[in-house]
Specification:
Layout (H helix, E strand, L loop, with lengths): L1 E7 L4 E10 L2 E10 L3 H12 L14 E5 L3 E7 L3 H6 L14 E6 L5 E10 L2 E7 L3 H12 L5 E4 L4 E7 H5 L12 E4 L2 E5 L5 E7 H12 L4 E4 L1 H10 L36 H10 L4 E9 L9 E3 L8 E10 L2 E9 H4 L4 E3 L6 E5 L13
Parallel strand pairs: 4-14
Antiparallel strand pairs: 1-2, 2-3, 4-10, 5-8, 5-9, 6-7, 7-8, 10-13, 11-12, 12-13, 15-18, 15-20, 16-17, 16-19, 17-18, 19-20
Length: about 375
């Protein structure tokens, strides 16, 4: 368990004094966080009201956690035509969203992903959940098309926060013992969606309910409180990547494996970029896929950073996202050319940069499109 206090600074940061309980006593640490977005400010207010701070920790499989998803935000879509409107804009099938957590992308005319998201539908509203900085960008892309549809887009408000739950013990906070694969459920003050068949559940919860859950976790011996980095570690382990501000319009969705993880429907009508995406699908082979790697380094690569092999001075891939595992180690998802994935040693950011070591993900990476 972690306790702490924080001090506001003039530069819109706060300094946090951590007091961490360990079997051998307490460890005091000093951390500084920057809060920029609306959602981050909402989290700051809630965490400070509970005198609660966050630090990255290894989560025991026997314990669950509630993760404060401070680096995610959402875009709300309302109106009677919202699903029809979204169906014509995204790679996933919004005709199936009722009771289902969707993964999808919005693409440009060249078929490259401008934004990726999870989508849930609740109480006549569709929520698109994205990395920080992406909601306003996606809204700007969609607004010009929404003018011709009875659908309205708006950014996050103060009523709700995004939370991650891991494991049955954490799910018990919602008084709901089981959620099916990719299923969504709505309970009073929250909507929950299970990510595939994993132990992770994504939640959009009323701020008051989020506070109740955190208080319950604080008093529990079975549920840890985790930060965004802990959640990101498990998303990367699942091989699920997201486009950020740094990687907009860089990847075709298949280069992110979205066809392998139900992020693309090939049975729906037209949407922007579909011609390119469908052509790759029906051609049936790909030159680039996303794989998971580990790297020993103390630096944090920016999404979009180049990957090299000794055989060429030209990049053979790019970092999609990364997260720190320890002081000296990171894990990454990298979109990489298949011809070098298994055959060559790969390096981060330059030809003689830190060596990348391939790790597994829970689905097969192939150069063929095996979807129906």
């Amino acid at each position: 368990m972690v306790w702490g206090d924080y001090t506001e600074n003039a530069d819109n940061t706060h300094t946090t004094h951590l007091l961490t309980a360990t079997p051998n006593g307490f460890i005091i640490g000093l951390h500084q966080y920057y809060y920029g977005s609306f959602m981050q400010n909402q989290w700051q207010d809630l965490l400070s009201s509970l005198s609660l701070t966050l630090e990255t920790q290894k989560i025991s499989p026997e314990r669950g956690y509630i993760a404060c998803l401070t680096e995610l935000e959402y875009l709300k879509v309302t109106g009677p035509d919202r699903l029809t409107f979204l169906q014509g804009q995204m790679t996933c099938d919004f005709d199936t969203i009722k009771g289902t957590l969707l993964l999808g992308a919005n693409c440009n005319l060249k078929g490259r992903a401008s934004a990726t998201f999870y989508a849930i539908d609740s109480n006549e509203t569709t929520y698109l959940i994205l990395p920080s900085g992406q909601a306003a960008h996606l809204k700007s892309l969609l607004d010009k098309y929404a003018l011709f549809s009875d659908a309205e887009l708006s950014l996050a408000d103060s009523d709700s926060l995004l939370i991650g739950l891991m494991g049955d013990k954490a799910l018990s906070l919602a008084n709901h013992p089981e959620i099916g694969e990719n299923q969504t459920i709505t309970i009073p003050q929250a909507t929950l969606g299970r990510i595939g068949n994993s132990e992770l559940t994504l939640c959009l919860a009323n701020t008051n309910l989020a506070q109740q859950w955190l208080k319950s976790a604080i008093s529990s011996n079975d549920i840890d409180i985790a930060n965004q980095q802990t959640w990101d570690q498990q998303q990367i382990a699942l091989g699920i990547s997201q486009v950020t501000a740094e990687t907009r319009d860089l990847f075709i969705p298949q280069e992110l494996n979205y066809d392998l993880i139900n992020g693309i429907s090939f049975n729906k009508g037209c949407y922007k970029g579909q011609e390119i995406i469908a052509r790759l699908h029906y051609r049936g082979s790909y030159k680039q896929r996303t794989a998971r790697f580990q790297c020993d380094t103390t630096t944090n690569p920016t999404p979009g950073s180049s990957i090299y092999s000794p055989a060429s001075e030209q990049p053979c891939g790019h970092v999609v996202q990364s997260t720190r595992i320890s002081n000296n180690q990171i894990e990454l998802l990298i979109s990489i050319k298949l011809k070098v994935l298994e055959s060559e040693q790969l390096h981060l950011e330059q030809n003689d940069g830190p060596i990348l070591h391939k790790l597994s993900i829970p689905y097969a990476i192939t150069n063929r499109d095996e979807t129906d």
